[in-house]
Amino acid sequence: SGREALAPLFEGCANRCHCRYWHFTGTKNEWLEKCAFRPEENAAELAAAIDAARDDGHGLVAVSDGKPVGWLKVAPRTAVPKLRNQGVYRRLELSDDGVWVVVCLLVAEEGRRKGVARALVGAVDGYVRRHGGHTVEALPRVEERELHAEEAFAGPWTVYRDAGFEAVAGERPYAVFRKRL
């Protein structure tokens, strides 16, 4: 199931949100409390979404030596309505029809600087096409300095740029990158 396949990756990266932030409807403090004290709920929600093949459970997994070393969460924009409520994105003219959004990219320590993020971003085009999408967007934090892993929750912006995504909206450090397929 989804839980068994991804659990080692999320645990190894000390990731307590399990890519559920974009689907959480409570307050910021409630979210922080859930991640701090009940991360197993986030893990169970992600596993259930993956196992049920729901729109909020889409993603790609990178595997090395039989173990997951990377995860890219991508979903139809309609499955991440919270995006529209974020201050930095609220004012942007963003379309929903056929648009998919990469909202998280997680790479285990042993997979970093080995092309895992690039491989995942490179594979997202075909995945989105197979699921009927025509455009992929990503929300990486754009900084010239190297980001800490927790700051780069959507992956390095240069990976998207190098894969043919273009900055189309927003302002640094919160740009929206888009690639039409």
Number of helices: 6
Report the biggest beta sheet as strand number plus sense, adding barrel if it closes: 6 strands, mixed
- Radius of gyration equals 15 Å
SSE topology string: HHHEEHEHEHEE
Largest sheet: spatial strand order: 1-2-3-4-6-5
Count of individual beta strands: 6
The poorly predicted ranges are none
Question: Termini distance?
Answer: 30 Å
Mean pLDDT: 86
Strand content: 15-25%
Structural class from helices and strands?
alpha+beta
Helical content stands at 25-40%
What general outline do the C-alpha atoms trace? Answer: globular
Q: Assembly type of the shown chains? A: single chain
Your description of this structure?
The chain starts with a helix and ends with a strand. With 181 residues, the protein is of the alpha+beta class. The longest helix has 15 residues, at 116-130. The protein has helices at 2-12, 28-37, 39-51, 87-90, 116-130, 157-162, and strands at 59-64, 67-76, 99-107, 135-138, 166-171, 174-180. Helix 1 runs antiparallel to helix 3. The radius of gyration is 15 Å and the shape is globular.
